[in-house]
Amino acid sequence: MNNILKELSFNFNSQFDGFALSIKQTLPTKGITGIFGHSGSGKSTLLRLISGLENSTTGQLSLNGNVLFDSNHKLNIKPEKRRIGLVFQDSRLFPHLNVQQNLAYAHKRCLHKQLNINDIIDLTQLKPLLHKKVTLLSGGEKQRVAIARAVLSEPELLLLDEPLSALDNQNKALMITLLLDVQRTLNIPMLYVSHSLAELQQIADNLLVMKQGNIEHFGPIHPIIHALNNTKETLQQTSLSLIVKEHLPEYGLTSLQLTTDIVIYLPLQSNTTVANDKTLTPKKIRCYIAASDISISRHEATDSSIVNHFQAKILDIQPQNNTVLITLTCAEQVFYSSISLWSAERLSLSLHDLVYIQFKASAVHSLADIGEL
Amino acid sequence: MIENSLFENSDLIALFTTLKMALVTTVILMVIGTPLAWYLAKMKSRFKIAIEAIVALPIVLPPTVLGFYLLIAFSPQHLPGQLWQSITGQQLAFSFSAIVIGSIFYSLPFVVQPLQKAFEQLGDDVLEAGAMLGANSLDRFFTIVLPITKASFITAASLGFAHTVGEFGIVLMIGGNISGETKVLSIALFEHVEAFNYAKAHLLAGSLLVGSFVVLGLIYLLNYSKPTTVHTKNEVNN
Fold first, then answer.
1. Residue closest to A51 by CA, chosen among A29, A31, A69
2. What is the secondary structure of A56-93 as a DSSP string?
3. What share of chain A has pLDDT > 70, as a percent?
4. Quick one: closest CA in B to A48, which residue?
5. Cβ pair A167, A140 in contact under 8 A
6. How many Cα atoms sit within 13 Å of B123 on the Cβ side?
7. What is the pLDDT of residues A191-207, one digit of tens each?
8. DSSP label of B236
């Protein structure tokens, strides 16, 4: 009987100083949707328009069937009435309140109060910090409080505006694990803005790419990341999401299942902050391999120290100045290899050729390496 | 008993009139000064500078100039005075109400400026955070703005009160010297000096000096122990 559309629909046309925004899109309000773009692409402005903090626009906005903004009908629901949460880049905790009081501030103003504040404190591991002044917290702790506080307002949609950009690599990995836990446990749809594709690769289910105030791409995360390989504006890479086969601590490796016969080795993940997914078994790991880290051979290098090598078929060859971007496929998984033009000519590569791709385990990056790019 | 005390009866009445005037003025100043300071802190209009200059005028203007114009405005021959008389049935000039209104103009910058500065420093960041947690504008004012800028409110109220207590020229111009109505401590002191009663003058002047010092000392003490913690836009997480 519940026919309410679970989607966010917006159509904004704004003109700011030296910057125009023109976007129209419908997004499903489930899982985590990443919004990627370089500085000045309009991604943070989009979040402010959705939240209602920015109103200088024309257009429409609706969330799950409720119209929140319509310039034609002069309708503009105030931010506090929209049931949309926002985690800011700089946490914006209230300096006159301690951690517990910051959390209580949100919980007190929540109309439904379906969440138990202690459950959220446990989920975000904030118990030891409850009585601390927020000015004494580290960057990672502040963002944990900010996320818990936003969750306690029980939003229909949670917006996150570069929430990890000020954190170090270790804290980034911990926070991504935490956010995935929060999302899966509470099932809160999230829009996650970042200029780090590596971060989004780890967390987002879908990806929306913005450029100069317009939407360039939208779709499932891995195909969109692969589509960006042709723009050369991001690191050319193969984006993967594979099931863990086994951990090999004696070798410091973890193997992922590509096919029944082929595994991909990467540095050991069992002791790192792999998403603590309680619902999905077996466990999946997201990882990426830079196109420049995958090499191509006509023969399988079985006597090489490189642990990952398997056969793949060439789908596409794109010359790019003095390099060549080669798209290959193995068991329906697409791989990207960037080699020199000289190597491509030397190997006489052509479409549909069967070749061997090879890459070291250390070339496969996962959560622990998130801040490197 | 009063005659035997340090202060003359008329001085005690002047003290009571002064405190009453300062208290009423401070309360009214906080009520009208807070939204005015907020407006000045947030407005981006070109008129902002003009309004700021008008608010700050009493700092540089001789009190007698302000008192002279207010005296003319309060007289029954001019609209404000006529309006007051038609509503209350009483003359405005040389009344307690007149010196309160004069004090409001005179002490306005001492209340508005510290609040405006605090509101400017506060920025919009924490207020936006409050809105995103479901707090409406009034809720945000009382639960975010007021606690964070508490020290500035204390400073504004204390300065407004202390400055009003020390008024002379403007009160003399629009209030005259009516005991129990418009005669305040500074005027009583002037009377003692004119009468060469330096002992009484010393007593009043010393009391005002010590009183002002205590008020300012308390402000600094409060601001020292509870500094205004402002979340600025430039805050960077470590």
1. A69
2. --EEEEEETTEEEEEGGGTEE--GGGTTEEEE-TT---
3. 94
4. B128
5. yes
6. 12
7. 999 999 999 999 999 99
8. -
- Tell whether B238 is covered by a domain: no
A62 close to A25: Cβ distance less than 8 angstroms: no
Quote the minimal CA–CA distance from B124 to chain A in Å.
Answer: 10
At A183, the amino acid letter reads Q
CA-to-CA distance for A166 and A137, rounded, in angstroms?
A: 14
Six-digit token string for A111 = 């109309």
Select from A262, A229, A270, A268 the least CA-distant residue to A330: A262
Please state, in angstroms and as integers, the Cα–Cα distance from residue A303 to each residue in A181, A257, A294, A299, A308, following that order: 42, 22, 17, 11, 12
Give dist(CA A102, CA B145) in Å, integer.
15
How many domains are contained in chain B?
1
| Residues A293, A212 within the same domain | no
Question: What tokens appear for B210 in the block?
Answer: 């010590």
Domain count, chain A: 2
Any chain B CB within 8 A of the CB of A113?
Answer: no
pLDDT classification of A316: cutoffs 50, 70, 90: very high
Inform me whether the C-beta atom of residue B36 falls under 8 Å from chain A C-beta atoms: no
Q: Quick check: A167 and B237 CB within 8 A?
A: yes
Yes or no: say if A113 and A107 are a contact pair by the CB < 8 Å rule. yes
Q: Cβ(B231)–Cβ(B122) under 8 Å? A: yes
Model pLDDT, residue B127: 96
**Residue A106: closest CA among chain B residues belongs to which residue?**
B133
CA–CA gap between residue A132 and residue A53 (Å, rounded): 29
> Which residue from A minimizes the CA distance to B228?
A96
Give the number of other Cβ atoms within 10 Å of residue A279's Cβ. 6
Classify A246 as helix, strand or coil: strand
Query: Which chain B residues touch A157 with a CB distance below 8 Å?
Result: none
Q: Which of A169, A200, A228 is the last residue of a domain?
A: A228
Domain that holds residue A280: 238-372
At B118, list the tokens. 């605090």
In CATH, what number is assigned to the domain containing residue B158?
A: 1.10.3720.10
Closest CB from B139, B148, B236 relative to A95: B148
Residues of chain B found within 8 Å of residue A142, distances taken between Cβ atoms: 237
CA A41-A42-A48 angle, to 5 degrees, is 160
Q: How do the residues of chain B divide into helix, strand and coil, expressed in percent and rounded to 5?
A: 75, 0, 25
Following DSSP, what letter does each residue of A229-245 receive, concatenated?
TTTTSS--EEEEEEEEE
Whole-complex ipTM:
0.86
Cβ–Cβ < 8 Å for B135, A106: no
Distance CA A107, CA A111 (A): 9
- What CATH number does residue A143 fall under? 3.40.50.300
Q: B152-179: per-residue pLDDT in tens?
A: 999 999 999 989 988 888 988 898 888 8
Q: Identify whether residues A250 and A222 lie together within a single domain.
A: no
